[in-house]
Amino acid sequence: MGQTPTLHILYTCPFCWKVRGVIEHIGMDVDYIPVNGMKIKKSVAFAGDWGKVPVFTDETGEHFVDSTPVMKHIDAAYNGGKLAATGDAERQQKWLEWADAKVSKATVPILYGTLGSALKTTTRISKIEKFGFVSKRLYAWAGFPIMWGIIAKKRVKKDGRTPKKLWHDLLTEFTGEHGTEPFFGGASPDLVDFAVFGYTRSISPFPQFALLEDHEKGMAWYRRMEGTLK
C-alpha cells in the first residue's frame, strides 16, 4: 500500500475546484493540503518549476500538475476513464478548451471587477486561505487594489460587458449545448461539466455568486452537478 494521494490547493482557486469536483464525484480518498497564498512556489517546489496549484501526488509519490491534465489523469487512473468516455471525444476537447479559455477568465472580473468587490474578495480570501498573521493582513488590504487596478480593470474594459453579463452569456452558451439533456455529457456529467462547474463553484464562497443565481438554466445545472458529488 502506498501513501494517500494528496492535492495541494488554495481553497479559492478556480483550477483547484475543477479537480476537487472530479475527486468528490468519484468518492476518492485524497488529503487536501492548503498552501500559503503568498508562498505558493515555495510550497510546491517539490513538483518542479510549475509553481502553481493544484498539484496532485498519487500513492506512489508521482506528481501531476495543470488542472485539466490532472482531471483527465484522475478520471483515467481512478474512475476507469468514464468521464472522458462520455459523449464525443472531439466535442469534449473543443469545449474543454472553451472552458479554459473563456470561463476561467470570467472569474477575475466578477470577483475583482470593482474596487468594492475586490476588497470583499481579498478580505474573504484572507480568512479562508492559509496565511501567516502578517501576510493575512497584507493580502487583504494590499491585494485588492492590485487585483482591481492591474488585472481585473483591464479585463473588464477589454471585454466591454459587465461581469454579470459576461457570466450570464457564458452560462447561456454552455447550457445551450446541453439540448434536452441535464448535463453537457448527456444523462451524466463529463469532464466539460466538471471544468465549468469548478470555475463556477470557485465563486460560491463570495457574495458575488448572487449575480449568477438568477440565471435559471445555469443554476439548475449547477444544482444537478452538486447532486453528483459524494
Commentary on this structure:
- This protein is of the alpha+beta class and 230 residues long.
- The chain folds into 2 domains: 6-83, Glutaredoxin (3-Layer(aba) Sandwich); 87-226, Glutathione S-transferase Yfyf (Class Pi), Chain A, domain 2.
- Helices cover 58% and strands 6% of the residues.
- It contains 10 helices and 4 strands.
- It has helices spanning 14-26, 40-43, 67-78, 82-85, 89-112, 115-128, 133-159, 163-176, 191-201, 216-226, and strands at residues 6-9, 31-34, 55-57, 63-65.
- The chain has a 4-stranded mixed beta sheet, with helices on one face.
- A hairpin with a 5-residue loop joins β3 (55-57) and β4 (63-65).
- α5 packs antiparallel against α8, α5 packs parallel to α9 (191-201) and α6 (115-128) packs antiparallel against α7 (133-159).
- It is globular.
- The two termini are 24 Å apart.
Which CATH architecture of the largest domain?
Up-down Bundle
Helix and strand element order:
EHEHEEHHHHHHHH
CATH level 3 topology of the largest domain: Glutathione S-transferase Yfyf (Class Pi), Chain A, domain 2
Q: From the alpha carbons, calculate the radius of gyration and give it in angstroms.
A: 18 Å
- Percent helix range: 55-70%
- The total strand number stands at 4
How would you state the average pLDDT, rounded? 84
Structural class: alpha+beta
Q: In CATH, what is the class of the largest domain? A: Mainly Alpha
Backbone shape: globular
The proportion of residues in beta strands is 5-15%
* Overall number of domains: 2
